[in-house]
Amino acid sequence: MKLFIFSNTLLLLSAVSLTVSSCASKSKANQKTKAPRSPVAVTVGNAQTKMIRGVNASGRLEATITAPISTRVMGNLVNLNVKVGDRVKAGQVLATINHQDMSAKRAQTEAMIAEAEANLQNARKDYQRFTALYNRQSASEKEMDNITLQYQASKARVEAAYQMRNEINAMMSYTTLIAPFSGIITQRSAEPGTMASPGIPLLIIEKENSYRVSAAIPETEISKIKLNDKAQLHIKSAGKSITGKITEINPSSQYTGGQYLIKISVPETENKGLYSGMYVNVFIEAELPAVDGKEGNAILVPQSAIVEKDQLQGLYTVSHSGTALLRWVRLGKNYGDQVEVLSGLNPSESFILKAEEKLYNGVPVEVIDTL
Known about the structure:
The chain is elongated. It has helices at residues 2-33, 100-135, 141-173, and strands spanning 40-46, 48-51, 54-63, 66-69, 75-80, 87-88, 93-97, 176-178, 183-188, 195-196, 203-206, 211-218, 230-235, 240-249, 259-265, 279-285, 297-302, 307-309, 312-318, 324-335, 338-343, 350-355, 365-370. A hairpin with a 2-residue loop joins strand 20 and strand 21. Helix 2 (100-135) packs antiparallel against helix 3 (141-173). By secondary structure, it is α+β, with helices and mostly antiparallel strands.
């Protein structure tokens, strides 16, 4: 009996061994037949050493025209027809304010006008009658003066009533808020039913597809730039590099902490994909004095080639074995669409500008173009 059990156990172990061997053989066969990974097509470029002669600044994108919409009268907000993000046209009604009290005042004014015109008509008849009597020497000069005074006073009361009606009509026009130009609503600070107060904005409207950059320049460099200078604008969030032109230079820094604000135009052809409030890196070419008799050189690479991981920055290079190799670098200032490399990359050393697929350390690469 024991011999029989032992024999069955040997047979079972042999079967398991054969199965494992067969699976291992199949796995090795699959590994042998698996095709090697095809290389990723990449474009490489060389780091450039460039003489830096210009001014760097940080700025923000803003609409060229911004208008706060407020009222000149106090009253309950009846309707608010727009919300943030709505596009409006010039003349479109945005909100209305309750004006029942003004309507009542206008009705009173209309009654005053009717009364004043009736008195004027009566005074005119008296004036005409007494003029005829005075010409026939049937009325004294004093009587004529009194009648003339009454006639002039009646005309003045009619004019005053008309002007009062004009004032009320003007005030009533402030209860209907309209868009001063075509644009987009960027802020809404009230809701229907709330009290609208004079001078407090209810809405803010910005002109759409019309942008400029506002940047701050330190006092040590403001004298180096002038109107119409070209400025390189790099908007990282939009992935765009734009050439603009300085259109305004504020000559005072009294309320800006020693910084001089400048405005830089953005071409209308570059407005697509831009939004007000985006951060902008600004580089303005300018004649700057040398430091210690020497002009500084910098290693510059395109910002699009920078890889960011866990607050670290790096560049992919091509190793001797033809694979991608991530090189960590330390970055300096931005110059338009380029950034300065302080360490980690030698001058004229090549790096990967762009790749057809996602890169990682060790992936085979094939250089298809060199810029």
